[in-house]
Write a structure and sequence with these properties.
- The protein has about 375 residues and is an all-alpha fold.
- The protein has one domain.
- Helices cover about 65% and strands about 0% of the residues.
- The chain is built from 16 helices and no strands.
- Helix 4 packs across helix 16 and helix 9 runs antiparallel to helix 10.
- The chain is globular.
- It starts with a helix and ends in a 9-residue tail after the last helix.
């Protein structure tokens, strides 16, 4: 591998590292305004969260596409195996967290639900014990759809993918709530995944750092204009749990003003990647290489520690100091836990891959 390719790989890892840092910080900020028992809504934390959510998941789809730059050269069996592996991994993590949560009394099943409800996410692609698992589900499906559209080797596969993306487009425009297998995320997720493939093949098309910084700054400014309505910038269409405010939340199909979402997601994701390539160091790149572990670790932290942060008052010196440390210390604490969490994720991922291989054994798909 030549030096230029190595730098590009480090830049991609740094972009992924920046993305996972934004995920962790964004979830830490939620303790100051989302679902607090005391009803407090700390607006500065919400505004920072609103900006992060405007582009951080499109950034993840973007870098995921870049990491799969050669997906069109793979067989359908290879791509399908990788996607089934992601679905199994999501279900394993769901089951593990649910078992720990219910066994410890930290989580409770709904009054009218039985333990069979723990199996439903595997059937419906929603209702996970960790909300972050939605991305693995969406990414698994997006990989297959984009592959089918890129290779065009089979009329049936291509037509099916085109119809699926059409259904996703309708859900993207009309959805206002979590959809089966994250159908409302297929179109934006697929678009950014494909754009990531393009940039991976044409790295010089990625904006220079100065332009990337300007794009990111524009995304920050524009994100605060989103009032939640699909087509109007003047009307107010708040989310029920955001105290009269709105924000992009892909997991719930909430995109707010759709043209504004497209602009802020594009400017923010591409700008963040450009800056990460320019300024990302070895630590940020290392975070990127461990992004799956950090992502799943953060999902568990959100389940078990999120309510703890929300229960601490945001007033008084002690409350302010606690929440400052809560946000500032979130990333370092997660990084420190990588060795421990990484072993668990690696084992779960390995089992998921073996099961995916068994399911497709007749295809004899090589490991991807």
């Amino acid at each position: 591998m030549n030096g230029e390719a190595r730098r590009r790989d480090d830049g991609l890892d740094a972009a992924r590292g920046l993305g996972i840092a934004l995920v962790i910080v964004g979830h830490a900020l939620e303790a100051q305004f989302l679902g607090r028992p005391d009803g407090v809504f700390f607006s500065p934390s919400f505004r920072a969260w609103q900006v992060i959510y405007a582009f951080h998941m499109p950034l993840f789809f973007l870098v995921s596409g870049a990491a799969n730059r050669d997906i069109a050269a793979k067989s359908f069996g290879e791509v399908l195996r990788g996607s089934i592996r992601l679905l199994f991994l999501a279900w394993f993590c769901h089951a593990l967290v649910a078992a720990i949560g219910i066994g410890s009394g930290w989580m409770r099943l709904p009054a009218d639900a039985g333990y069979d409800s723990l199996l439903m996410p595997f059937v419906t692609g929603r209702g996970w014990s960790m909300s972050v698992l939605w991305f693995l589900v969406s990414l698994a499906i997006v990989r297959v759809l984009v592959h089918a559209l890129l290779v065009r080797r089979s009329i049936l596969a291509t037509g099916t993918a085109a119809v699926a993306m059409g259904v996703g487009a309708l859900a993207f425009v009309a959805s206002d709530g979590e959809t089966l297998f994250q159908v409302a995320t297929w179109v934006p997720g697929g678009a950014f995944f494909a754009l990531g493939i393009f940039f991976a093949h044409h790295p010089r098309r990625l904006p220079r750092p100065a332009i990337g910084a300007a794009a990111l700054a524009a995304a920050v400014a524009l994100a605060m204009l989103d009032r939640g309505c699909r087509w109007s910038l003047t009307e107010i269409c708040p989310a029920p749990d955001l105290a009269g405010h709105a924000a992009v939340r892909m997991v719930f199909g909430d995109y707010g003003h759709l043209p504004l979402f497209v602009v802020t997601a594009l400017l923010g994701a591409v700008g963040a990647w450009s800056l990460a390539v320019a300024i990302g160091g070895s630590r940020l790149a290392a975070m990127g290489r461990a992004s799956l572990t950090l992502y799943l670790l953060n999902g568990a932290a959100l389940v078990f520690l999120g309510p703890v942060g929300a229960a601490v008052a945001t007033t008084g010196i002690s409350g302010v100091v606690f929440h400052l440390l809560w946000v500032v210390g979130a990333v370092p604490v997660h990084v420190a836990l990588i060795p421990l969490a990484g072993r668990v994720v690696h084992r779960l991922s390995d089992v998921a891959d073996r099961l995916a291989a068994l399911m497709l054994a007749d295809r004899r798909a090589p490991a991807g």
